[in-house]
User: Which sequence fits this backbone?
């Protein structure tokens, strides 16, 4: 099984974490977002020109949520979706929401504050950062705050695809210096800290240190 995409990308990180939790081994092609994803060779794998892509024998699929649901069905031990049908639907919805609403905010912080100055030697566009922090993040975090449990994770004590999707985005934002305001979103703040204390996230962050070093030079 081969996973295309570097772990520093939040959608790739989701798949890596899912594999770590489930004990699935895979080969890695550490391709990063950039022109290579739009070239014919990669477009054969994913015509959307995006990572992650999973190749498993004669199956080739893109999209982190699709990949993780496939892996969950193929390797049902330690499920990443709950058993109950409504909970499963809510996990899928929150994962979709993390990708559609949270990812653009977290990605902007990562790009503007971390990648552009460190890797591309371009100045941060402060207007984009301010707009992201002041206007784009708040409604998304308001909604997430309403979903947050008092303890444990979104669907009990075990991480699901929804938790992985949300927390991975905040890791990306943290590289861009973004911290959730604990006064306004206290449950979300505690929930993220709780997740980042789990061995799987500690190990994941350790694994991506090498890539962070490449970017910071
Ligand atoms: N819905 C997709 C989104 C994938 C995605 O946006 N990947 C980014 C990296 S995190 C990418 O490949 N960007 C390249 C581009 O947009 O050109 C998923 O969940 O996998």
Assistant:
């Amino acid at each position: 099984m081969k996973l295309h995409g570097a772990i520093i990308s939040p959608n790739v990180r989701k798949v890596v974490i899912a594999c770590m939790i489930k004990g699935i081994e895979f080969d890695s092609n550490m391709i990063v977002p950039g022109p290579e994803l739009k070239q014919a060779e990669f477009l054969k794998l994913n015509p959307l020109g995006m990572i992650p892509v999973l190749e498993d024998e004669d199956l080739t699929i893109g999209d982190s949520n699709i990949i993780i649901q496939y892996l969950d069905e193929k390797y049902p031990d330690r499920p990443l979706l709950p058993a109950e049908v409504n909970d499963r639907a809510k996990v899928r919805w929150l994962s979709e929401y993390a990708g559609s609403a949270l990812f653009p905010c977290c990605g902007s912080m990562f790009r503007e504050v971390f990648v552009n100055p460190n890797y591309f030697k371009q100045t941060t566009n402060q207007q984009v950062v301010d707009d992201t922090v002041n206007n784009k993040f708040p409604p998304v975090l308001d909604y997430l705050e309403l979903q947050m449990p008092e303890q444990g994770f979104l669907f009990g004590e075990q991480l699901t695809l929804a938790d992985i999707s949300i927390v991975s985005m905040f890791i990306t934002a943290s590289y861009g210096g973004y911290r959730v305001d604990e006064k306004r979103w206290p449950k979300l703040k505690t929930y993220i800290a709780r997740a980042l204390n789990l061995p799987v996230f500690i190990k994941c962050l350790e694994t991506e240190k090498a890539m962070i070093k490449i970017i910071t030079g």
In short: The radius of gyration is 17 Å. The CA atoms of residues 90 and 162 lie 8 Å apart. The chain has a mean pLDDT of 97. Residues 9-11, 33, 37, 49-52, 63-65, 99 surround glutathione (CB under 6 Å).
